[in-house]
Design goal:
single chain, mainly alpha, about 0% strand
Length: about 120
């Protein structure tokens, strides 16, 4: 590994070094898989992912944490947790409607009292 690194180089600007490749690796940690999955569900639901998409993500091995947690606790328990999380969090749905029609003009009057 090189020891003469300039201090002002950003991490993504550094060259890859064979002894220290930029690889993301994960593993299993001890803990409550049901609690972890519930937290993941709530976080993703709050960020706008809908329940159906989230259920599909748990079956996709590319979403490693969701996929592993679903397999750790089982399909039925994972689906039950998802339903509970979705009921607790709720869903924010927004619909935007754009119109090309003209709107009424409004008059805005601003006044201020000056002190003398």
């Amino acid at each position: 590994m090189t020891t003469n690194k300039p201090e002002n180089i950003l991490p993504w600007q550094r060259p890859a070094e064979p002894e220290h490749p930029m690889v993301v690796e994960g593993g299993f940690a001890s803990g409550d898989a049901r609690f972890m999955l519930r937290c993941l569900y709530e976080e993703l639901l709050l960020s706008g992912v809908d329940r159906e998409t989230l259920a599909e993500m748990t079956r996709d091995p590319n979403y490693q944490a969701l996929y592993a947690a679903r397999h750790a606790i089982g399909d039925e328990a994972a689906t039950e947790l998802l339903n509970q999380a979705a009921a607790a969090v709720g869903a924010l749905r927004v619909t935007l409607h754009e119109s090309t029609t003209r709107s009424d003009q409004a008059t805005l009057t601003i006044s201020a009292k000056t002190s003398e």
